[in-house]
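for the recovery benchmark. tokens below, seq after
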């Protein structure tokens, strides 16, 4: 066990785990609350992963999505929301391991793990953390998820992005404001070209897909070097209202309607 594992074990002794949803002692998510997690249904948009939506859906119609497809494990509600909130805003690092275990089956299905595929996933990366948030928490939850999911699927993982500027918190912003907040915020690391040599299909991991602007900007950076970016998140918001194109999102390309799906089976 490494130093991080020893520290987590010590913290568990001092502050025993309680379910983040109902406060039952024993685990970050008790069995009863885990049973209330809502997997993303089979009927979903095959471009952006919107639950219960056609393809293209009101959320992605009229947008130029830079990723080929989006997959997620759970709808962002109830216990899924409680896990993400506790991990991010209570700085509970060990929750990321529980989130990884819960999302691993959906991630493996999305990647086609153990199946022959014409274009298999070759590398896992993640959205880089905001400098201030990472300092506050002591970790980047997207990186913990990305590395954990890669291990679970037997795939290599590597950081590919750096943040070129650090904007305000995305939470609470509408889509236009989110797009403006992350516009030009990401660039490739200096060693990205070496890491990506001869690799095409890359999955970008984050904790939550809200409007998709952060993931879309990361995917657009990857697309500059002729990769095929995909995105995967632990959870995804479900919207009832019709979305509209962001003022900061380019006009749609003709290729959008022919993109392959990247969605886990239920």
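predicted aa per position
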């Amino acid at each position: 066990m490494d130093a991080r594992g020893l520290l987590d074990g010590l913290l568990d002794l001092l502050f025993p785990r309680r379910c983040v949803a109902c406060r039952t002692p024993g685990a970050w998510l008790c069995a009863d609350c885990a049973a209330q997690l809502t997997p993303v249904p089979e009927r979903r948009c095959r471009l952006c992963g919107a639950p219960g939506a056609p393809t293209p859906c009101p959320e992605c119609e009229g947008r130029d999505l830079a990723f080929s497809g989006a997959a997620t494990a759970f709808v962002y509600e109830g216990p899924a929301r409680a896990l993400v909130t506790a991990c991010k805003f209570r700085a509970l690092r060990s929750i990321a391991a529980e989130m990884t275990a819960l999302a691993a089956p959906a991630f493996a299905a999305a990647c086609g793990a153990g199946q022959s595929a014409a274009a298999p996933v070759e590398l896992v990366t993640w959205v880089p953390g905001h400098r201030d948030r990472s300092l506050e928490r002591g970790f980047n939850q997207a990186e913990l998820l990305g590395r954990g999911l890669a291990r679970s699927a037997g795939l290599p993982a590597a950081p590919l992005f750096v943040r070129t500027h650090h904007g305000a918190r995305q939470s609470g912003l509408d889509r236009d404001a989110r797009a403006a907040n992350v516009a030009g915020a990401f660039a490739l690391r200096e060693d990205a070209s070496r890491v990506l040599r001869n690799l095409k299909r890359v999955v970008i991991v984050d904790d939550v897909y809200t409007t998709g602007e952060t993931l879309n900007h990361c995917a657009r950076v990857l697309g500059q070097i002729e990769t095929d970016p995909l995105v995967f998140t632990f959870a995804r918001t479900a919207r009832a209202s019709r979305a509209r194109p962001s003022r900061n999102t380019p006009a749609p390309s003709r290729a959008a309607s022919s993109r392959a799906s990247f969605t886990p089976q239920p």
